[in-house]
Every structure is written in C-alpha cells, then in structure tokens.
Amino acid sequence: HQFDIPIDSNEHVLLWIDFFTTRGRRFFSRWLERSAQYIPILQPILAQYDLPKDMVYLAMIESGFSPQAYSWAHASGVWQFIAPTGKRYGLNIDFWIDERLDYEKATHAASKYLSALYKMFKDWKLAWAAYNCGEGKIKRAVEKFGTNNFWQLIQENYLPKETKNYVPKLMAAAIIAKNPEHYGFSKPFDTYELNEFDSITLEYATDIALIAKAAETDETALKNLNPSLLTFATPPI
C-alpha cells in the first residue's frame, strides 16, 4: 500500500499497531466505520492545498472522525482545534455557530495550519508534532538538542508524552486503515453510501424546525448535516 506521507516502521509505530489491533480494537473499528463517511469529503480539500491525502489520518487520531469530539483541552471537532487557533485560521466561533464542528470548513483551516507548519519545519513529522503541542515547543526542542530528527527528539526528556506518541500513532493508524483486512478489520468502504445534499445560504436567522419542514426532513438530520449550529436557528448574516 502506497503512502504519500512519511511512514516509518520502528518499535514506536509497531507498539501502536499492536495497541489498535488488541486493546484498542473496538474503538479503532468505530474510527474505520466513520472514515468511510469522512475520507471522501476531507481528502479533496487537503488536495486543494497540495497536501498529502493520507494526512486525513491525522483527523482520525485526533477525533476518530467524530465532529462532536471535545477534549479536556477544550479542542473541538474533527481536527480538534482550540478556539484561538481555529479563529486564527478563519473559523467563526460565537453564540450561534462553532465552525470547528463544520468538518469541511475545519479541514480548510487545518490545511492552512498544516501548510504553515510544514513551511516552518520542512519536515512532516515535526509539523505533526507541532500540530499537537504547538510550534514554539518544537522550535525550542530543535534548537535545544540540535537535531530536526523527530525520533531523536523523543529520546530526550523534553516533549510531552502525548506528542512523543502522536507521530507513531498517526503512522500506525494510516498503516492499518489503508489495509484493514490484513489486520483483521472489515473494510468499511463497501457498505457505506454517501449522503447527497445541497447547500443554501439564508440571509436571516431562521428556525431549524422551519427549515426542516420546508426541506421535508427532520431536525436531527438537519443538525447532523450542520454540526456547527449551536442553537435552534441559523445565525443572522
């Protein structure tokens, strides 16, 4: 299976492959199921920014492709943005709406952020690590230890444990997700049908129940298609 992101096979990566296929198997199965819905939507957006398509697995380890994912660090959505970073890359977050939960808009923001990180570090492993713990921490690590080799940096007692695990975890997720049957998972893409929908722009704050009625659908379906809406209505423009 070909990858367009760097993939290493070392003890750190093998450890995560082992975890995802044993103790973590149940939730990795769920991630795989959801991946069938989101990968076909997210990959073309990554491609618009000339980013590797396999970068989609970063969203997989961040949120398991759950738009409602919310972390202890107040990170939100498929790409787990904290509010300041989300806003810096163009996402609206207010009383009405939280665009971190809009997986398409959040993918545009994540693509801009990841492009900036790659430009900064000229290395995907360091860019991913910076996505996890912040570019300042990675810059200081590179300067402090005089190397931009991620595997060497994690030997030092400097980066957070979560960041040390982040890159091998991403590689392990990509390896399994691109060849699930080899690891005893069922392939999700054969059974899933993508929802087809049209987008419209509303000029006024409009009640969701009213829109659902007009569209001959129910409020839950509408909310699922518009996860960034926080209230009972669309935001005023």
Can you offer a commentary on this structure?
By secondary structure, this protein is mostly helical. Helices cover 52% and strands 0% of the residues. The chain is built from eleven helices and no strands. The chain has helices at 11-21, 25-48, 56-63, 83-88, 103-121, 124-133, 135-145, 150-153, 161-177, 208-214, 219-225. Helix 1 packs across helix 9 (161-177) and helix 2 crosses helix 5 (103-121). The longest helix is centred in the first third of the chain and has 24 residues, at 25-48. The radius of gyration is 19 Å and the shape is globular. The termini are far apart. 32% of the residues are buried. The mean pLDDT is 90.
Q: What's the shape?
A: globular
- Evaluate the radius of gyration: 19 Å
Helical proportion, percent range: 40-55%
Largest beta sheet, briefly?
none
Count of strand segments: 0
Distance linking N and C termini? 46 Å
Quaternary organisation of the protein chains: single chain
Uncertain segments are none
The average pLDDT score comes to 90
Q: How would you classify the helix and strand content by structural class?
A: mainly alpha
> What is the count of helical runs?
11
**Succession of helices and strands:** HHHHHHHHHHH
The proportion of residues in beta strands is under 5%
